[in-house]
Each structure stands twice: as C-alpha cells, then as structure tokens.
Write a structure and sequence with these properties.
Two copies of one chain form a homodimer.
Chain A (H helix, E strand, L loop, with lengths): L2 H20 L6 E6 L2 E7 L2 H4 L6 H13 L8 E6 L3 H9 L4 E6 L16 H7 L6 E3 L4 H5 L18
Parallel strand pairs in A: 3-4, 4-5
Antiparallel strand pairs in A: 1-2, 1-3
Chain lengths: 163, 163
C-alpha cells in the first residue's frame, strides 16, 4: 500500500476521532482497510457504551469481523490516530492484521492514554508469535497529536481512566 | 474474598468453558464478581461472533459494563479458567478490576493460547500504571488445565489462531 493511501486513511481516522470527541468520548479514531476497501472503522466509545474495551481499534476490529464474517483479517491494515495501547496491539495480533499505521507517537501525548509504563506497541509485536505484522508510526503525527493532551498537560483526574 | 469463593467461581468458569466448547468455541470461561454478585460472565466466542476480541474475559467485561452501566469496576474480581492473555490482562486494567484469579497456568497448556512468547500476565500488571490489581493463579489448576491442549500436544493448525 502506498504512502498516499496511508495519509488518506489517517485523515479519515482523524475525522472519526473528532466525531468521537463530539459525542463525548476520547478523540481516537481507527480505520481498517483490506484490498483498498474500508472493512471497519470506529472511534473510542468506552463511556458511551459502558464498555472498557470499546477503544477505537477494538470497535473497528469488531466491525471488520462483522463485514467479513470471519475473525482473521490477513492482509488488512489498521490505521489509528494514536499508537495503539497494549490491549489493542494484542487484539490486532489475534485478528491476524498485517500492518498497523498510526499518527501520534506515545511520547507526543499524555501518559493517561496508555496502560503501561514502558512497553511500546513495537515491544508487543516483537514479543508476539506473529512476525508478519509491520508497524509504521508518525503519519500526520503532529495533526494527530494535536487531538490529545500533551505530555506536560495536567488533564482532569476524572478524564484519566487508568488511575 | 475467601478462598472458598474462589473455588466456587472457578467452578462456574469451568462450566462456562464447557458450554463454550459445546457451541464450537475454545473452552475458556470467565466470571466477574463484585460484592458477592456475578456482574458478567461468558465464554470464548471468537468464531461464533466473528469477533477476534471475543475472548471469555472480554465478553464478561462487556457484560459487567452493561450490568453496572459504567466502564470501571473497582473492587471486582475476574475469574478465568486460564491465565488471561495480554489483550485480556490489559482490558482488566482498563476496567479497573481489582483482582484476577485463574485456574490453569500458562506452562500447563499449549502456547497456542497466548499471543506472545515471554510476557506473563504478571508482567503486564507489574508494568502497568495500576498497582492495585492482585493476581492469584492455580485455583483448580489441574481441573482447568484438563480443558486444554497440553504443552507437548500437537493441535491441528486450523485451531491455532495466532499462526
């Protein structure tokens, strides 16, 4: 897949992130693409659905499964506005996704968006049985990072889920 | 919570695992308990739902959210027949679950049940921001391990999702 496609789909993910924020959630968006077709997309819906697992990536993965009527999506690319957290990285591995592309890097945003101190997405992937999953970060990185609290911001405690 | 309760709920998780197996899925069961009440339970439903995230623990977490109408379950205990995988461990952290109790240890079953080579549940927890999550393994361990392919078994390739 070309870099131009990457930018197109990260733009779509940003759009979804803004929709998520408008509906009261965290501004994180995700698109899953297979053979140049969007097979699933979503935004963080944890609070709206009372579902702690409803991160943008998980919502999109579920929809992709519903679209394809199967639970493995070999060859698919997952686009996210933010480096996927550990839960979502592992979900992508279980789904057999072949490529993850994201915008904002972990160190561009506040630590509240991640559940662990040290492990990066690439650590999960390196440690996984799957060795056919590639990772590309920083696509529209600053545009994506602008959606989030920055590292030195002091977000309200009640917005910090992992406290 | 007493050890006696742990055995009761792991027994219930084993029952759910068997139900899951009867309906064509992997034999993994999970129960979530808060204030001596089951607030969510489930079995692995990945193939039935075409949802790669529908591990027993995630199904149970979603149901707990629906029961409580919120996305954080402080004080809750998650019971699983098998050491939760990385995705489910992280989901428990996001859900604010206070205690994880499981039956079979990772080294009692085939590696196909896990998505990574090295990291154990305790590694995820130790590395997480949450330091208020305790972990107890080996409750009815052999009974639970008996539900799964063992380390030296050679399961059919098409049953091994993370290949």
């Amino acid at each position: 897949m070309e870099r131009e496609d990457d930018i197109t789909y990260i733009h779509r993910a940003i759009e979804l992130a803004r929709q998520g924020e408008s509906s009261g959630g965290a501004p994180i968006g995700c698109v899953i693409v297979l053979d140049h077709r969007i097979i699933g997309e979503g935004h963080n819906s944890v609070d709206q659905l009372h579902d702690p697992t409803a991160h943008a990536e998980i919502v999109a993965i579920r929809r992709a499964g519903a679209t394809l009527h199967r639970s493995r999506f070999k060859g698919a690319t997952l686009y996210s506005t933010l480096q996927p957290c550990g839960m979502c990285s592992m979900a992508a591995i279980w789904a057999g996704i072949s490529r993850i592309v994201y915008g904002a890097e972990r160190d561009q945003v506040h630590q509240m968006y991640f559940e662990d101190r040290h492990l990066q997405t690439i650590d999960y992937i390196n440690d996984a049985f799957a060795d056919d999953l590639s990772l590309t970060g920083g696509v529209l990185g600053e545009a994506c990072a602008g959606l989030y609290y920055r590292p030195t911001d002091n977000p309200p405690g009640d917005e910090q889920a992992n406290k």
